[in-house]
User: Which sequence fits this backbone?
């Protein structure tokens, strides 16, 4: 009998638009010979099952079941396609854990940790992974720009500490730009990360686990027409991505090993995407952040890397679902 899979999309943040695009790609590539899948849309108006003809009905939150033509459907696993809250920050993971329902992302603790950029790099540093020097600032404890610049050297990146898709992020080259960048980031979150700029090449790499073995996808080098890889660069055609990246093997090995180490140290599950800067001065990879529900839209990097590895998306999503089912 085919397993029943809930493809969960939407979300409660500005990243919902990306979640819906990801769900289209994933839905088009689920192996329907092995799985029956159902689209679940979680948004500010409620939790909805959306049928193929566009009809909507509510999800029973007591057990995450739906009713289709009078039949109650209970799922065998959840395939998460929510970027941002509540699908990437541990909230849904905790709910599914309470129900005993397997899912394809990191667990609640790891999801909550990695959603917080500062805590992520702090734990990674404890694990021996290179990270940039940074400062964690809270809205309830204001700090002057002078105090920031006493601790960090320009240029710096200012970004909301929680969230993704580079929303609210700025690069600051001059001291006079810093307050505007702080204000912009605080509009998105009540805590922010200020991080020293590292000069070098930017790479991103997918990491996943199959039958207990941590594996990496072919990495991607990211070039942007903007000053940094912001929302417009990511989603509005203002970047160039080369997959697989052209890189000397000695440096490629360093990035792959750092990615596997980060996956292990942070106790990741499912497929994650980890961003690195290859430090121009030292030749060492510095980890930037971890995306535990990486984009799966046609413009996204993980599908590019899967194809570069020689897999079909159907085979890849099958492997991801089957790995979740064994937990």
Assistant:
């Amino acid at each position: 009998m085919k397993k029943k899979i809930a493809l969960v999309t939407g979300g409660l943040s500005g990243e919902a638009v990306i979640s819906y695009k990801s769900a289209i790609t994933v839905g088009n590539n689920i192996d329907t010979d092995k799985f029956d899948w159902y689209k679940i849309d979680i948004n500010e108006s409620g939790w909805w099952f959306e049928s193929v003809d566009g009809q909507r009905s509510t999800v029973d939150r007591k057990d995450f079941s739906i009713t289709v033509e009078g039949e109650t459907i209970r799922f065998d696993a959840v395939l998460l396609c929510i970027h941002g809250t509540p699908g990437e920050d541990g909230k849904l993971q905790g709910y599914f854990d309470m129900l005993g329902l397997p899912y394809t992302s990191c667990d609640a603790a790891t999801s909550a940790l990695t959603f917080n950029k500062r805590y992520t790099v702090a734990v990674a540093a404890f694990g021996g992974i290179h990270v940039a020097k940074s400062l964690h600032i809270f809205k309830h404890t204001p700090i002057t720009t002078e105090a920031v610049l006493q601790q960090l050297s320009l240029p710096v990146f200012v970004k909301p500490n929680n969230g993704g898709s580079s929303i609210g992020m700025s690069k600051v080259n001059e001291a006079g730009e810093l307050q505007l960048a702080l204000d912009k980031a605080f509009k998105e979150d009540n805590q922010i990360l200020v991080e020293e700029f590292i000069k070098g090449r930017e790479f991103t790499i997918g990491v996943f686990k199959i039958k207990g073995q941590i594996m990496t996808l072919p990495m991607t080098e990211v070039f942007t027409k903007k000053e940094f890889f912001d929302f417009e660069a990511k989603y509005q055609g203002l970047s160039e991505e080369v997959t697989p990246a052209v890189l000397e093997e000695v440096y490629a090995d360093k990035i792959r090993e750092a990615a596997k180490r980060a996956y292990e140290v942070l106790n990741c599950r499912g497929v994650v995407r980890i961003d690195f800067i290859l430090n121009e001065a030292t030749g060492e990879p510095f980890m930037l952040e971890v995306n535990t529900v990486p984009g799966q839209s046609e413009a996204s990097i993980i599908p590019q890397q899967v194809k570069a590895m020689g897999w079909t998306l159907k085979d890849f999503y099958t492997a991801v679902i089957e790995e979740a089912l064994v937990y």
About this structure: The mean pLDDT is 92. Residues 102 and 166 are 29 Å apart (CA to CA).
